[in-house]
Amino acid sequence: ADQMTRGFIIGATAGRTTLTGEGLQHEDGNSPVYSALNHGVVTYDPAYAYEVRHIVWDGLQRMYGEGDPRDPNILYYLTVYNEPIHQPAEPENLDREGLLRGIYKVDDHSGQGLKAQLMASGVALPWAREARRLLAQDWGIDAAVWSVTSWNELRRDGVEADEHNFLHPTEAPRTPFVSSQLAGAEGPFIASTDYDKMVPDQIRQWIPGAYHVLGADGFGFSDTRRAARRWFHIDAESIVVRTLSALADEGKLDRALVQQAIEKYDLFNYSISAGG
C-alpha cells in the first residue's frame, strides 16, 4: 500500500484441501483474512475461468484504464487453487455486476419444496452445486446456489454502507450489496468455503436470515482431497446435512431427518477416497 503497487497476485495453491499429500505447510486457510486487513488489496475467490476473465479485465480497466473513478493504486489477489474442475460455459444472462461486486446466483430454485440458499466461493462452489442436487434428490429440498467471488469486498461494502448511514442520518440509508442481492431469498443461508470459517463469517450481519457457515478450520492431514473435505465437513454431503439441520432449527422439518442424513452419508467416515 505504501508503494501504491498495482498488479495481480495469483494464489496458485489456495485453500486447505487442494494440495493434500504435501504436508500442512501448503495448506492455506487464512490468506483472505490477511488481505482483508489491507485496503490496498482487492481479494477475489473465483470458482470458474469466466469469473477470472471478468475480474482480470475489470482490474486492468481500474488500474490502467482511463476515466475509471476508482482508486487505481490497487493490488489484486486472486485464488486459483491447485485442482482441475469442470469449467462451465459463461451463462448468457450472467450477472456481471454481481460477479464483480462479490456475489451472484448460478443456480435458481427449480420448483416445489422447502427453500434454502447455498453460498460458496472458489473450489467450494462445485460442492455446493452437488449439494443442491442431493438435497433435491434425497430430501425434496429446493435450494438455490450463489457464487461468492469476494467475501472481503462484500464486507467492505457493508462496512461502508453502515458508516455512511451512521454519519448521514437524514439521508436515504444505503443498503449493503449482499443484502440487496439476497433480498427476498427464502433462507436459511448456508455458506461454504475451503478457507477458515472466519472468511465467510465476515458478512454475517448483512445476511437477511439465519446464516450458517462451513469452513476448513484448524489443521487437516495429508490424504486425498475427498477425505480432507470430509474431515473438515465441507464436502457436498456435509453441506446437505448442515442445510437440513438449519431447516430443523427453524421448525420446518423433523430433526430426526438430520440424524438419518448423517447415517446415510456416513458423515464420520474419514477414510473415503473417491473423487480425489
Written account of the structure:
There is one protein chain. With 276 residues, the chain is α/β, with parallel strands linked by helices. It is 35% helix and 14% strand. It is built from nine helices and eight strands. It has helices at 31-36, 49-64, 96-101, 125-139, 151-167, 177-182, 225-232, 236-249, 256-264, and strands spanning 7-11, 41-44, 75-79, 103-107, 115-120, 142-148, 189-192, 211-214. Helix 8 (236-249) packs antiparallel against helix 9. The N and C termini lie far apart (39 Å). The mean pLDDT is 93.
How would you summarize what this structure contains?
With 276 residues, the chain is α/β, with parallel strands linked by helices. The chain has 9 helices and 8 strands. Helix 4 (125-139) packs across helix 8 (236-249).
Topology (SSEs and partners):
Blueprint: E1 7-11, H1 31-36, E2 41-44, H2 49-64, E3 75-79, H3 96-101, E4 103-107, E5 115-120, H4 125-139, E6 142-148, H5 151-167, H6 177-182, E7 189-192, E8 211-214, H7 225-232, H8 236-249, H9 256-264
Parallel strand pairs: 1-3, 2-3, 5-6, 5-7, 7-8
Antiparallel strand pairs: 4-6
